[in-house]
Amino acid sequence: MHKIIIVSGASKGLGFGITERLLSKGWMVAGFSRKTNKKVIDLKKKYKKKFIFELMDIKNYSRYEKFLDKIKKKGSIYGLINNAGTVNEDLLVRQNDKHIKNLLEINLLAPILFTKKVIKYMMINSSGRIVNISSIVAKSGYKGTVAYSSTKSGLEGMTRALSRELGGKNITVNSIAPGYMKTDLTKNMNPKKLAQIIRRTPLKRAGDIKDIIGIVEFLLNKEASYISGQSILVDGGLT
Ligand SMILES: NC(=O)c1ccc[n+]([C@@H]2O[C@H](COP(=O)([O-])OP(=O)(O)OC[C@H]3O[C@@H](n4cnc5c(N)ncnc54)[C@H](OP(=O)(O)O)[C@@H]3O)[C@@H](O)[C@H]2O)c1
């Protein structure tokens, strides 16, 4: 029976990179996002049997069961990478309430509700790995990211509490907190702000999704079976 890793937000950026790497290492991957693209279609052609991709908005809670029903027929659910996320930067005093609520829903509420559904299957198997993609701002904060930082700190709280609930079932729960990486999420960042981040980073460069993918892969492997409740900060030494 194949062990399946679920990746939310698998269509681009970090989620796509994780999906591509896990497939190349022989894992079966079930990914979802709201939209698809050529890279996803090409990956589907390359890994016909091992890659399941669904169009699903993580806010569409009533779709979860259908998605999980489909994938559990193909194997056993072993891993969950809570990666899907969005950003909306503004000073809190003027940030639109709708944007704040949307951030909280996509980045925190939905991952908690989705994880709740997924862990049922991991608990039956008495094994599993959950990796939550947090952010450096969960620890450091950053001007203009009050709502976003709150969602990522929340995700890290979820990581610690859930690791205590699931340890007895041989399920580990960890988060990875990347610093800045060049993806669609950050494409509108002010170049001056980026230059300032690089200047202050001891390793003198921006992050790359490859800096994170290897850690996700490691956390899924046997060698990581005694690591749980942790947040691994990957920021070139910035903090
Ligand atoms: N880039 C950075 O510098 C950075 C730094 C720290 C942490 N992170 C975190 O890393 C994770 C991945 O970010 P990224 O940089 O790879 O961003 P990205 O390139 O914008 O990719 C985000 C992914 O999430 C999906 N997604 C967004 N909203 C969704 C929704 N409502 N339902 C389902 N899927 C949704 C997107 O697909 P669709 O739009 O098609 O739905 C896409 O596949 C996020 O959690 C982000 O907060 C990023």
Characterize the structure shown:
The chain is α/β, with parallel strands linked by helices and 239 residues long. The protein has one domain (2-182, 208-233): Rossmann fold. It has helices at residues 13-24, 38-46, 64-72, 97-125, 137-140, 146-166, 191-200, 209-220, and strands spanning 2-8, 28-33, 51-55, 75-82, 128-133, 171-178, 231-234. A 7-stranded parallel beta sheet has the order 3-2-1-4-5-6-7, with helices on both faces. Helix 1 (13-24) crosses helix 8. The longest helix has 29 residues, at 97-125. The structure holds NADP nicotinamide-adenine-dinucleotide phosphate (NAP). Residues 9-15, 33-35, 57-59, 83-86, 106, 133, 135, 178, 180-181, 183-186 line the site of NADP nicotinamide-adenine-dinucleotide phosphate.
Mind sketching the topology for me?
Elements: E1 2-8, H1 13-24, E2 28-33, H2 38-46, E3 51-55, H3 64-72, E4 75-82, H4 97-125, E5 128-133, H5 137-140, H6 146-166, E6 171-178, H7 191-200, H8 209-220, E7 231-234
Helix pairs in contact: 1-8, 4-6
The chain binds NADP nicotinamide-adenine-dinucleotide phosphate (NAP).
The site of NADP nicotinamide-adenine-dinucleotide phosphate (NAP) has 27 residues, from helix 1.
